[in-house]
C-alpha cells in the first residue's frame, strides 16, 4: 500500500468513527508520525495532502525541518531534554510533551528571544506508569497554574501515551480518564481556550477508541508509513 492509500484509508476511518459518535470529522487533527522515516516519505505524504507531522527526536526533526517546505507543521511528541529547549522553541508548531516547569521555563526563555509564541500540551502519565514520562494526573493543575504565568507559552490541552495493552477496551479507560481530567482543568480555566481544549491520544492501534473518547489530535505512524526502519 502506498502512503497516499494509507492516508485515504485512515481518513475514511476517522470520518466513520467520528460520525458514529456524533462528532464532526473536522474536529480531529491527524498527525502523521514520521520519526525514523525518510524525508522522501514525508514529501510523499505532503503530496497526498498531509501537512502535520510528529517527530520524537529533536536532532532528527531539525535535519528534516530544513529540507522540507514551511507548509509542513511539526509537532514534537518525544521527551524534551531541557538542554534541547532552544531547538524545540524554534522548530515546532506545537510541543505536546511538556511535563515539568523547568522545561516550560526554558522554552519560555528561548521563545522570548525569538519573539515567538508556542502552543503546548501537558503530557500526563495517565496510567501512573513509573517507566513513562508525563506529569501525574493530580499534579497537572498545579503545573498549568505555573505555566499560565509564562508569557510565550499557550497551554492548549493534554496529551498521553497510555500503558500498552492489546485490548483497546482497557486503553479506553485511560482515554476517558484523560478526557475527564481535561474537562476538570477547563472548568478551572487553566487552558488558553477553555471552550475547546485539545486531547492528543490514540495511535495506529487504538485511534478509533480515542476518537470515541474525545481525542482532537491523533498520532499515527505505522498505519501511514509502515514499519519504522531500525536505527542505523
Ligand atoms: C511513535 C509514536 C506514535 C505513533 O505510533 P504508531 O503505533 O506507529 O502509530 C504516536 N505517539 C507517540 C508519542 C509516539 O512516540
What does this protein structure show overall?
The protein has about 230 residues and is α/β, with parallel strands linked by helices. It has one domain: Alanine racemase (TIM Barrel, Alpha-Beta Barrel). It has helices spanning about 5-20, 40-45, 60-65, 85-90, 100-115, 140-145, 170-185, 205-210, 220-225, and strands spanning about 30-35, 50-55, 75, 95-100, 120-125, 155-160, 200, 215-220. Helix 4 crosses helix 5 (about 100-115). The longest helix is centred in the C-terminal third of the chain and has 20 residues, at about 170-185. The mean pLDDT is about 95.
Q: How much helix is in the residues?
A: 40-55%
The main sheet orders its strands as 7-6-5-4-3-2-1-8
Tally of separate domains? 1
What is the CATH architecture annotation?
Answer: Alpha-Beta Barrel
CATH superfamily: Alanine racemase
User: What composes the largest sheet?
Assistant: 8 strands, parallel
What is the CATH topology classification name? TIM Barrel
* Model regions low in confidence, pLDDT < 50 over at least 5 residues: none
Q: Which structural class should the secondary elements be placed in?
A: alpha/beta
Distance between the termini: 24 Å
Ions, cofactors, ligands: which are bound? pyridoxal-5'-phosphate
Principal-axes shape call: globular
Beta content? 15-25%
**Please, what is the average pLDDT?**
96
Q: What is the chain-wise order of helices and strands?
A: HEHEHEHEHEHEHEHEH
Cofactor: pyridoxal 5'-phosphate
Keywords: Pyridoxal phosphate
Modified residues (N6-(pyridoxal phosphate)lysine): 35
Protein name: Pyridoxal phosphate homeostasis protein
